[in-house]
Amino acid sequence: MAEMDTSSQGGGHKKGPGVKKSKKLSTRVDLTPMVDLGFLLITFFIFTTTMSQPTAMRLFLPKDTEKPEEQNKAKESGALTIMMSKDNNVYYYEGILAPDGSNFKSSNFKEIRDVILNKKKSTDPKDFVVVIKPGKESTYNNVVNMLDEMQINVVKRYALVDMAEAEAMLIAVTEGGPAPAPQQ
After folding, report:
1. What is the pLDDT of residue 184?
2. pLDDT tens digits, residue range 155-169?
3. Which of the residues 16, 75, 83, 127 could staple to 91 if both were Cys, CB 3.0 to 4.6 A apart?
4. Alpha-carbon distance 157 to 125, whole Å?
5. Would you say 62 and 71 are in contact if contact means Cβ atoms under 8 Å apart?
């Protein structure tokens, strides 16, 4: 609150009977209420930020088993493997990749939703799992789009896995490029 000090400070001279003495006014601002308001605002923002919930995708991890090799087992008939490559190309196969690559198919992001839905309908829900394998030339956007497809199609079990060398070679041959050198 602002205060005005109207007390006389002395040192003034009267020059005559009709001349009034000039008063020196002191303007002092009391900042105590402003400090209180600052603490109230800080308290308000601390409480509101702790009450806000973060929006993130829920992550369900597999249950622990005594034998680690059995922990992430899935039926081969219920597996759908989706691989992403350059230029938004999507490749997929059901079950295990055939040695001759006969079940290896090509698609795009528009058609892959139908593939996922058809596999989901034809598979027992407890056996259905999608394995997502981004290639070295796929983009971050492709991976995010594929994770969005999992949410849109309500796929409860999916995993992000590195691509095998045989799959990378098959994609390179399909795209007409040179096959990648085997890693050592």
Report:
1. 47
2. 888 888 888 888 888
3. 83
4. 9
5. yes
Q: Starting at the edge strand that comes first in sequence, how are the strands of the sheet with 129-134 ordered?
A: 105-107, 90-94, 79-84, 129-134, 158-160
Residue type, 105: K
Q: Are 104 and 93 in contact (CB under 8 A)?
A: yes
Outline where 52-139 has alpha helix (H): 112-122
Dihedral (C-alpha) 135, 85, 81, 169: value to the nearest 10 degrees? -70
Tokens of 61: 């991890």
Average pLDDT of the chain is 78
The answer to whether residues 144 and 178 touch, using CB atoms and an 8 Å cutoff, is no
- Terminus-to-terminus CA distance in the chain, angstroms? 78
pLDDT of residue 41: 92
Backbone dihedral angles phi then psi of residue 56, each to the nearest 5 degrees: -145, 160
Model confidence band, residue 8 (pLDDT cutoffs 50, 70, 90): low
Tokens (6 digits) for 119: 């596999």
Query: Do 143 and 160 form a contact (C-beta atoms < 8 A)?
Result: yes
Nearest Cα to 170, choosing from 135, 141, 144, 138? 135
Three-state SS for 85? coil
